[in-house]
């Protein structure tokens, strides 16, 4: 035992997700397209919010632009490494690379949780207190809220990374997952991980549960306010601005709860569920917000038709 403990790991091997060998090329191309479309879609949303004067001055779309940055970051951290699983040969990830991947994933992921909550609060103020909205949700306040979300996410990510990698790792080095995440990495630790598992469960559970509860509370008030709107067009417009947010929150939170709020489990379904917050949700967010949000669609049309209009003038 002393001989094993004297040699600490310098790299990990990510086993990836199980797949039939005959689908290797198909899966590589599939996730490559997912990654490219994710980057392009979120970049398009970011540019639209930045360029359109009717959007970038409104807190809701400032939050949407930040969400696009987070989605691009999460996709870049996870998907390229996942694609390497579909190439020939073993490609280990350095120990420091594993630490960085875990930190940035939980940093951006928790920031996304906080941002979803801010977006729900913004919709609550806009629909339930429309007359006070310009005073309650100023550009300065929205900026401070975004900065606070980034800082809280950074602290959360650092806490999880420090707790995970303070333990000794002396072998084996095969991570039964497609990226360095807490449950999979902890199984390789050469020490008791019960404290880590408890802290992870409580910490992530607290973040997810508190954010999700605040979102549910906000939308309870929002739905009640919408049902009091007398005109069908007014109700439709209100539901349009909220429908996209409700959809992405559901797609994000359900898999996260399945992965992290089941301590001590090791199910293949966990890897499949992890594909949603890491690869699928960042890809779907631009589609959901452009298909369900009329203002974003109109802004895209104005941006596309802008050069044509100028040339005619």
From TrEMBL:
Keyword Transmembrane helix part of the UniProt annotation: yes
Signal peptide boundaries: none
Keywords tagged on the record: Cell membrane, G-protein coupled receptor, Membrane, Olfaction, Receptor, Sensory transduction, Transducer, Transmembrane, Transmembrane helix
This protein's record includes keyword tRNA-binding: no
G-protein coupled receptors family 1 profile domain segment(s): 41-289
Gene Ontology molecular function, alphabetical: G protein-coupled receptor activity; olfactory receptor activity
InterPro entries: GPCR_Rhodpsn, GPCR_Rhodpsn_7TM, Olfact_rcpt
Localization per Swiss-Prot or TrEMBL: Cell membrane
Membrane topology field: Multi-pass membrane protein
Transmembrane segments: 25-49, 61-83, 103-121, 141-163, 198-217, 238-260, 272-291
Pfam families (alphabetical): 7tm_4
Any Gene Ontology CC annotation: plasma membrane
Protein name: Olfactory receptor 10G3
Source organism of the structure: Orycteropus afer afer
């Amino acid at each position: 035992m002393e001989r094993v403990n004297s040699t600490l790991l310098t790299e990990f091997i990510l086993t990836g997700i199980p797949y039939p060998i005959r689908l290797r090329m198909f899966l590589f191309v599939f996730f490559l397209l997912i990654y490219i479309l994710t980057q392009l879609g979120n970049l398009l949303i970011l540019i639209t919010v930045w360029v359109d004067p009717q959007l970038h001055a409104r807190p809701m779309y400032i939050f949407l632009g930040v969400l696009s940055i987070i989605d691009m970051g999460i996709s870049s951290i996870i998907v390229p490494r996942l694609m390497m699983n579909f190439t020939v040969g073993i490609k280990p990830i350095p120990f420091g690379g594993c630490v960085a991947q875990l930190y940035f994933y939980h940093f951006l992921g928790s920031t996304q949780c906080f941002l979803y909550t801010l977006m729900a609060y913004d919709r609550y103020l806009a629909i339930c207190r429309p007359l006070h909205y310009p005073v309650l949700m100023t550009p300065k306040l929205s900026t401070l809220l975004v900065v606070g979300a980034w800082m809280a996410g950074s602290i959360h990510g650092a806490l999880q990374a420090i707790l995970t990698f303070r333990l000794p790792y002396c072998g084996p080095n095969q991570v039964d997952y497609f990226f360095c995440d807490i449950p999979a990495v902890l199984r390789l630790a050469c020490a008791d991980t019960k404290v880590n598992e408890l802290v992870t469960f409580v910490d992530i559970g607290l973040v997810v549960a508190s954010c999700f509860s605040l979102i549910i509370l906000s939308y309870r008030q929002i739905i009640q306010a919408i049902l009091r709107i007398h005109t069908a067009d007014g109700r439709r417009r209100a539901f349009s601005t909220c429908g996209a947010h409700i959809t992405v929150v559901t797609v994000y939170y359900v898999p996260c709860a399945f992965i992290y709020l089941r301590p001590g489990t090791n199910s293949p379904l966990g890897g499949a569920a992890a594909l949603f917050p890491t690869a699928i949700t960042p890809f779907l967010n631009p589609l959901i917000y452009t298909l369900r949000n009329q203002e974003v669609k109109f802004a895209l049309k104005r941006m596309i038709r802008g050069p044509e209009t100028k040339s005619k003038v």
